[in-house]
Design a protein that fits this description.
It is a single chain. The protein has 478 residues and is α/β, with parallel strands linked by helices. It is built from 15 helices and 17 strands. The strands form four sheets. It has a seven-stranded mixed sheet, with helices on both faces. The chain is globular. It starts with 22 loop residues before the first strand and ends in an 8-residue tail after the last helix. The structure holds NADPH dihydro-nicotinamide-adenine-dinucleotide phosphate (NDP). Residues 154-158, 181, 183-184, 213-214, 217-218, 221, 232-234, 237, 240-241, 255-258, 289, 386, 388, 414, 459 line the site of NADPH dihydro-nicotinamide-adenine-dinucleotide phosphate.
Amino acid sequence: MNFEYAAAPESRSVVKIDPVYGHFINGKWVPGSAHFNTINPATEEVLSSISLGSAADVDAAVKAARNAFDKSWSKLSGRERGKYLFRIARIMQERAREFAVLETLDNGKPIRESRDVDVPLSAAHFFYHAGWADKLEYAGVDITTAPHGVVGQIIPWNFPLLMLAWKIAPALATGNTVVLKPAETTSLTALLFAQVCQQAGLPDGVVNIVTGDGSTGSAIVNHPGIDKIAFTGSTEVGKLIARAVAPTNKSLTLELGGKGANIVFGDAAIDETVEGIVNGIFFNQGHVCCAGSRLILQESVADEVLEKLKRRMDKIRVGDPLDKNTDLGAINSAEQLAKIRELTAAGEAEGAGRWSANCTLPENGFWFAPTIFTGVTQAHRIAREEIFGPVLSVLTFRTPAEAIEKANNTPFGLSAGIWSEKGSNILWASQQLRAGVIWANTFNKFDPASPFGGYKESGWGREGGRHGLSAYLKGSAK
Ligand code: NDP
C-alpha cells in the first residue's frame, strides 16, 4: 500500500523581502546604479531587484574594509573578535526560520534541507571559528598568526548562506576584513546576513557585501587594494582568477568543481548503500560540488543495486520547495537547467541508457526529474563533465584496481565514497583515491572542524578546520 502525504507548506510570512536592495558598504546600505531581478526558481516569481555592483562600488567597499582593518578590527584582541562571532552565530540561530525560508525561496532547495542543513551548519561555522579567534597560536599554524588584511570573497549559488559562512567566519576569526560577492541568482540571504552584522554591532566596514554578476567578481579579483582572494565556483572561472592573481602579491584559495566517484563493492550492505547513493547525488538537486555523481558498481551487485535504486527513486517527492515533505526542489536557474538538458542529451546521443523517475513536474519554474544513465563509459561526456544536477552516471567494475582506475580517471579530485563492509577494503581504497574528502559507508557529511578541498582541478587550499584557518593567515599549517 502507498501512503500519500498531505501538503505541509512552510509559511513565508516570517520573511520580509524589500522590493529593491542596495550594497552593504561600511555598515550602511548604499543604493546601486543598475539593477537585476532575483526570482524564485520554483515559480519564476520576481522576488526583488538587486544592485549590480560596479567597479566604483567595489572600490568603495575595499576602502571601507581597509579602513576597518587599520582602525578597528586589527586592533581588537582575538577574544573580542570571538565575541562578535559568537553574537553573529546566536542571531543566526534566533533567525534560523527566516534564513531557511528565504534561502528556499531564492534558491529553490527544499525547506527540509535549508532548515536542517544550510542554516544550522552556517551557524555552526560561526560558533566553531568564534572558538578559535583567541587561540590561533595553539592552532598549529606555522610562522605567524598575522591576518592578510582585506579579503575578497566570491561565492556560488548552490549553498548561498553556507558558502558565505565558510568564507566570512574564518576570515573574521583570524582578523581579516572582507568584501564578499554572492552569486547573481542568490543574493538574498547574504543581504539578510548584512542585517545580522548590523544587529550584532559589528564595527562598520568589517563585512561589506557587494552584489552583482561576473563583472563585479572580476572587479574584486583585480582590485589592487585586496590582499587575498577566496573563491568558490566553477573550475572555468577559477582558472581565470588564477591567471589574474598570478602576477600580483595576492594570496589565493580556490574551491572548484568535482565529479565524485561513489564506489560500491560487492560486499556492501545494499539497502543502506542505496540510501547513500540517493543522498550522494539527489541532495540539493545534485547542485553539490562534492556530489557522488559517478556511481561505480561492482558487477556482481550491479543489477540488484540498480533495481533497488530505481524503486527508491520513484519515491522521491519532487515539487514545491516550501513543502516540508519535498525531497527534490527546483533547479536554480534557466541557465543551469539548459546545461543539465544539454549534457543529458549528449549522454543519450553517445549511447548511454537513460532512465528517469516517474514523477510529475510542476508547470512553472525550472525542474528536472531524478535521472540515471547506465552503460556509461569513460569516454562519455556525462562521465567526465560536471552536470551539477540530479543526474547520476553509472559505471561498473570487476576488480578493485579497476574501480580505483575509473574513480581517479578525471581531471577533478574533490570527493569520493566507498561502500563496503570490510574495513581493510575501505582503508586500501581510501589510500588509492585522489580526492580531498572521502566518505566510507556514508556521503555528504560536513562539519566545520573538518577540512574540505580538492586535488587537481578541484582547487587549491582547504576550508574548515585548522587547515582552513591557516589560509587566512600569513603562514601555513604545520
Ligand atoms: P561560477 O564560477 O560561474 O560562479 C561563481 C561565482 O563567481 C559567482 O558569484 C559568479 O558570479 C562569480 N563570477 C563569474 N564570473 C566571474 C569572473 N570572471 N571573475 C570573478 N567572479 C566571477 O560558478 P557557479 O555559480 O555556476 O557555481 C557552480 C560551480 O561551483 C560548480 O562548478 C561547482 O562545482 C562549484 N562549487 C564548488 C564548491 C567547492 O567547495 N569546491 C562548492 C560549491 C560550488 P555570477 O553569479 O554573477 O555568475
